[in-house]
Structure formats: structure tokens, C-alpha cells
Design a protein that fits this description.
The structure holds two protein chains of two kinds.
Chain A (H helix, E strand, L loop, with lengths): L2 H32 L6 H17 L5 H20 L5 H25 L6 H12 L2 H10 L7 H23 L13 E4 L2 E4 H23 L1 H11 L1 H6 L4 H23 L10 H14 L5 H21 L4 H7 L1 H11 L9
Antiparallel strand pairs in A: 1-2
Helix pairs in contact in A: 1-8, 1-9, 1-11, 1-12, 1-13, 2-5, 2-7, 2-11, 2-12, 3-4, 3-6, 5-11, 6-11, 8-9, 8-11, 12-13, 13-14
Chain B lengths: L5 E10 L2 E11 L4 E5 L6 H9 L5 E6 L2 E2 L5 H6 L2 E4 L11 H8 L5 H14 L1 H5 L10 H14 L4 E5 L7 H16 L3 E6 L2 H7 L2 E6 L2 E7 H6 L1 H7 L7
Parallel strand pairs in B: 3-8, 3-9, 6-7, 7-8
Antiparallel strand pairs in B: 1-2, 1-4, 4-5, 9-10
The chains are: A mainly alpha, B alpha/beta.
The complex binds adenosine-5'-diphosphate and magnesium ion.
Chain lengths: 346, 240
């Protein structure tokens, strides 16, 4: 193996690592705010890629009707749960937000898709189709049990993951898709030939991470999210509505997952069930950082990406095995250095 | 009755089978300091948690004429109730200033600016340490931050759970001075304390709690002269 090959593998690793970083950071964020380990994130990422692919092919993406369906489920479950206080105003509000909104997006897709919208527009549409799914999932599966233990929430998350894999098959079919690169072509940088898409992935990831940092550090909303993560009771005592904070975290998470999805689509073929493995790598990074630190998660994700690309070169059959085996020494190490977190006491 | 700020009747709260608060009735007038004193484990914290909605409870609870029983914590906060809990519940990895800002989360930017000015005026120490991480403060500073954060929300009723717990005597004195200052600026205070002497000194009215029940009540000056209170809670009188 020579330097050129290693540099090439390194580049590949960093690019994949950047995407895992985005997914890992999202997992940490959602866990910190809601204590949910967001397993179905991978599905959202896959749907992001598949939606973009549909736009490129001039089809209406399955995510559009799916969003309407989710909206209907939300209104229906709220109706069952609330009973009291159901009146005209309630139905108009919910109907507008959860049903009319998604229907309008669907109509927009039906109108725009055959014209094969420009790339930026397709990406924007993709992200706006998937963002509302985050809070909807939260309302359907997690808000009703928001105070349950981490384990219970995790089991609910796994349930959502399986439901979504099935739904994905139904709405997108078993066929895999690939999208074209955001920027075609290759740029020589030194001895390296850098793919345009690599630059896009790196750029978008860095911009997203900086955006997240500014959001959490400077804005009141961001501080409220951090406060909820640090001390839920304290947050409730100052009047931060933890449920809407949870919905907001899920919206942010869904948006970032969708964005990662649109970036992965041109790097590898994505089908309805490929999201899980991808987000699992983000998960390995998030776990390595103790589900707590954003910078450590980014570093670990880059590590995972690089390890993966080198093991793909040397032992491609064992690529996934090597990456996932990483989690065992990491858990052992964490269990030794970190004192047991007392999240259940309150 | 409609003029009272807080009105509890027959409030009970339990942890599983353990009834920590039994049939408590309590009333307080606006602009007053009312204290609930009692030994460790008497149920004082549970009572405050029940009023705040942190702990489920039965019985009637009215705050400024509004029925609290169906309200979530957030709604009680919006109505002007504020609890400074025994464990403070600060945002320990965030700065002093961010903790304060979040205290006025629901009130918006202008209230944050004026609130910060007011709180920094009252607690000079917090101003010096505004950039410090809350988790690194000393016990007294943490208590000041907890009170400052509560004041940022412009409460009508401030409930303090053992504000002097674990603090040095000099700081305890500061805290009680602040409590009387607050009353003169119009905040009503429900004060829970094991330090009965200091609490009775600042309070207008007092309740004594034992094993989950209110056993005595009266004007603070009257209670502090009561032989039973002197013996059990003020360490006076002794063995007969
Ligand atoms: N989380 C809990 N679970 C079970 N019992 C509790 C809990 N918290 C308090 N208790 C019990 O309730 C009673 C009242 O406690 P508490 O309200 O904390 O008293 P105080 O604040 O007056 O010291 C005590 O007997 C205590 O052991
Ligand atoms: Mg107590």
C-alpha cells in the first residue's frame, strides 16, 4: 500500500465519517433532551436519499403521502387521548397543522416532481417533507411515555424502527436508488483527486455543526434545549415546556437525518432498509462519546469512518464486523472510566 | 377566602402506601411570609412539591382564586408560582448568567434584560461570577443562584425549601435578609425550614408540621413564645 492509496482511503473515511458525525450528533442531541435513543433515525436518512432520488427521476416521492398518513395518525391519537376539550377550534388547528400542511406539500410535490426540480429545490423539498415527521413520531410514540425509563423509551424506539422499515418498503418498494452528486467532477488537490461530492458533504456537515453550536450557545431556544437536557425538573420549574422542547429536538433530528440522507445517496446505493446500518455507525460514535459530548462524537465518528474505509480495503468482507466490534472495547472502557450515571433518580 | 393568595384544604400526598402529607389545610395572604417548620421527614418538601405539581396530590388547592388541581407544572409557573427546591435543580453545566436567563424563559427578551439587572443588583456575588459554570459555585452561591433564577420569572408566590440548608451561619443571615427584602418588594413567600428560629423571626404566620400533619399554627411571634415550640424546635426549655 502506498501513500496515494492511504490518502485516498483517508479521504473516503473522512467523508463517511462526516455523515456519521452528523447522525451521531443528532442521536446525542435527541437523547440529551428526551432520553430517547433514536433508532429510527436511519430510516429517516434512507427516506431522505430515496426522496431525492424520486425527484431526480421525476416521480412523486413516497414520503409525501407518508407524511399525510402520519399527520392523520397524530390527529387520531390526540383525539383518543384528549377527549375533553375537543371542539371546532381544536379540529381546525390540528387539521391545518397535521393534515392540510402535509396535503399542501404533497400537492406541491405532484406539481413539481414531473418538472424535475433543480437540485437545491429537491433537497429543500426533501428536508421539508421529513422535518415534520420528527415531531409527529415524538407525539405518537414518545410524548405519551415521556417520563418512562430509558429502557422503555428505547423499546418504543425499536418498535418505531420496525414499523418504519415496513412502511418504507410499502411506500418506496424494495428497489435501491442512487442519486447524482451535488457537484459532479473531480478536483486535483496535491496528489489527491477529490470528488466534488466529498467537498459538499464536508462543507454541509461543517456548516451544520457550526450552526448547531451557535444555536445551542447563543439562542434562548437552544439554551432551553440544553437546560432540559441537563436537568429536566429544573427546566420544568422555570416553565420550559418539556414536551414542545422534545418535539423541537425531534424536528431538528429529523432535519439533520434527512440532510445526511440526501448526501449519502450519491456515495452508495440506498434502499428502504439501508438506513439502519448507517445510523448504527453514528450510534457507535455517539456511544463512544458516552451519549453526552458533541465534539467527542464528531471525533469518534471520523474514527469510525476511517476505520471502515481501511477495513474495506484490507478485509472487505469483514468491514461491518470490524466497525461494530469496536463497540465492545468501547463499552468496557466506558464502564471503567465513567461512574454509573444516576439518570433514574429524580 | 377569595382574598387569600394560596388556599389548601385537606391536601394529601403519598409515595405508594406511605402517606407523607395528610389532610393539610393552609392559607396565606398576599404580601406575607408564611413558614412551615418541622423536623426532618415531617413532609414539608412533599407539601411544596404537591403545591408546585411535581408530586401528585389530592384535596383542594387554589392559587389566587384559580384551581390548581388540573394544572401541569408549566401552567402553575405561568400563573406565578415558583419553587426553589431543596436540591436547587440548577443547570449545573451552564453558566450563572444562562441559568438566570432561563429563569425568565417564558417572559421574553425585555424581561430578561430588566430581570438580570435586578438580580445582579440584589446578588452582587452572582454578577461577579456571571460567566462561571453553575456546578462550580459554593453552596451559598448556589442558593443565591437558585433564588435569583426564581426571581427572574417574576413570581407572585415564591416557595423556598430549606434555603439555609448546609450553609455557613454568616450566609444564612444574608439569605434571611434577602427574604425580608423580597417581601418588602411585594413577593409573597412560603418558607420551609428546619432552622425554626430564623424562620419564625422573619415570618408573619407559621405552621408546625409533624408526621405529615399540621399540628399547630399561629402568628409567628405567638408560636415562638409557645412552650411546646420552644422545647421541640427552638432548643429552649429542655427537660422540664
Ligand atoms: N421519593 C420518596 N419515596 C418514598 N418516600 C419518600 C420519598 N420522599 C420522601 N419520602 C418520605 O416522605 C416523608 C416526608 O418526606 P419529606 O417531604 O422529604 O420531609 P421533609 O421535607 O419535611 O424533611 C418521609 O417519611 C420520607 O421518608
Ligand atoms: Mg425537605
Amino acid at each position: 500500500m502506498n501513500t496515494t492509496i492511504s490518502l485516498f482511503l483517508l479521504q473516503d473515511g473522512v467523508i463517511n465519517g462526516a455523515i456519521y458525525a452528523l447522525l451521531g450528533v443528532t442521536l446525542v442531541l435527541i437523547f440529551a433532551v428526551t432520553r430517547v435513543i433514536f433508532v429510527p433515525q436511519g430510516e429517516l436518512a434512507a427516506w431522505g436519499a430515496l426522496t431525492l432520488a424520486a425527484f431526480e427521476a421525476g416521480h412523486v416521492p413516497g414520503t409525501a403521502p407518508l407524511l399525510v398518513l402520519l399527520g392523520l395518525c397524530c390527529v387520531f391519537s390526540d383525539m383518543l387521548r384528549q377527549r375533553r376539550g375537543l371542539n371546532g377550534k381544536w379540529f381546525i388547528e390540528r387539521g391545518l397543522r397535521d393534515i392540510a400542511g402535509p396535503l399542501a406539500l404533497w400537492a406541491l410535490c405532484i406539481w413539481l416532481a414531473p418538472q424535475k426540480p433543480a437540485l437545491w429545490l429537491s433537497v429543500a423539498l426533501t428536508v421539508s417533507l421529513i422535518i415534520p415527521m420528527g415531531p409527529m413520531i415524538y407525539r405518537l410514540a414518545f410524548a405519551p411515555i415521556a417520563d418512562a425509563s430509558v429502557l422503555t423509551l428505547f423499546i418504543a424506539a425499536i418498535g418505531v424502527h420496525f414499523a418504519f422499515t415496513g412502511t418504507g418498503l410499502l411506500f418506496f418498494g424494495a428497489e435501491g436508488s442512487r442519486t447524482t452528486a451535488f457537484i459532479a467532477g473531480v478536483f486535483p488537490i496535491g496528489v489527491l483527486m477529490v470528488k466534488g461530492q466529498s467537498l459538499v458533504v464536508l462543507g454541509l456537515t461543517i456548516v451544520s455543526l457550526i450552526g448547531l453550536y451557535i444555536f445551542f450557545d447563543k439562542t434562548l431556544r437552544g439554551k432551553a434545549l440544553r437546560a432540559t437536557a441537563v436537568n429536566r425538573l429544573g427546566a420544568r420549574l422555570v416553565g420550559i415546556p418539556t414536551q414542545s422542547t422534545g418535539r423541537f429536538a425531534f424536528a431538528l433530528g429529523a432535519g439533520l437525518a434527512a440532510l445526511s440522507g440526501t448526501m449519502i445517496g450519491s456515495l452508495t446505493t440506498i434502499s428502504y432498509d439501508s438506513g439502519f446500518i448507517i445510523s448504527l455507525k453514528g450510534f457507535v460514535a455517539a456511544i463512544a462519546a458516552g451519549l453526552a459530548s458533541y465534539p467527542l462524537t464528531v471525533l469518534a465518528a471520523l474514527g469510525v469512518g476511517i476505520l471502515e474505509s481501511f477495513s474495506a480495503f484490507f478485509a472487505s468482507a469483514f468491514k461491518e464486523v470490524i466497525v461494530f466490534s469496536l463497540i465492545i472495547p468501547m463499552l468496557v472502557w466506558r464502564s471503567l472510566v465513567v461512574r454509573h450515571s444516576d439518570e433514574e433518580d429524580e | 377566602m377569595s382574598a387569600s393568595l394560596l388556599n389548601l384544604s385537606n391536601v394529601s400526598a403519598a409515595y405508594g402506601k406511605i402517606e407523607a402529607v395528610r389532610q393539610v389545610s393552609l392559607e396565606m395572604q398576599p404580601g406575607s411570609i408564611v413558614t412551615v417548620i418541622g423536623a426532618n421527614g415531617a413532609g414539608k418538601t412533599t407539601l411544596l412539591n404537591a403545591i408546585m405539581g411535581v408530586q401528585p396530590a389530592t384535596g383542594d388547592m387554589y392559587f389566587a382564586g384559580e384551581d390548581l388541581s388540573q394544572m401541569q407544572i408549566e401552567a402553575r409557573v405561568a400563573n406565578g408560582l415558583c419553587l426553589v427546591p431543596e436540591r436547587r435543580e440548577l443547570f449545573s453545566s451552564m453558566s450563572v448568567e444562562d441559568n438566570l436567563i432561563l429563569g425568565a424563559y417564558r417572559l421574553g427578551a425585555r424581561a430578561i434584560a430588566t430581570g438580570l439587572e435586578e438580580v445582579f443588583g440584589r446578588f452582587a456575588r452572582l454578577k461577579e461570577r456571571r460567566r462561571q459554570i453553575a456546578g462550580t459555585l459554593s453552596g451559598g452561591e448556589r442558593q443565591m443562584l437558585a433564588m435569583g433564577r426564581a426571581l427572574m420569572g417574576q413570581p407572585r408566590l415564591l416557595m423556598l425549601d430549606e434555603p439555609s440548608l448546609g450553609l455557613a451561619p454568616r450566609i444564612v443571615k444574608d439569605i434571611f435578609t434577602i427574604i425580608t427584602d423580597l417581601r418588602s418588594s411585594g413577593v409573597s413567600i412560603l418558607l420551609v425550614e428546619q432552622n425554626a428560629r430564623a424562620a419564625l423571626h422573619v415570618a408573619d404566620y407559621a405552621y408546625v408540621m409533624e408526621l405529615g400533619e399540621i399540628t399547630m399554627q399561629g402568628h409567628a411571634s405567638q408560636l415562638s413564645a409557645d412552650p411546646r415550640v420552644m422545647e421541640s424546635y427552638l432548643g429552649l426549655g429542655g427537660h422540664g
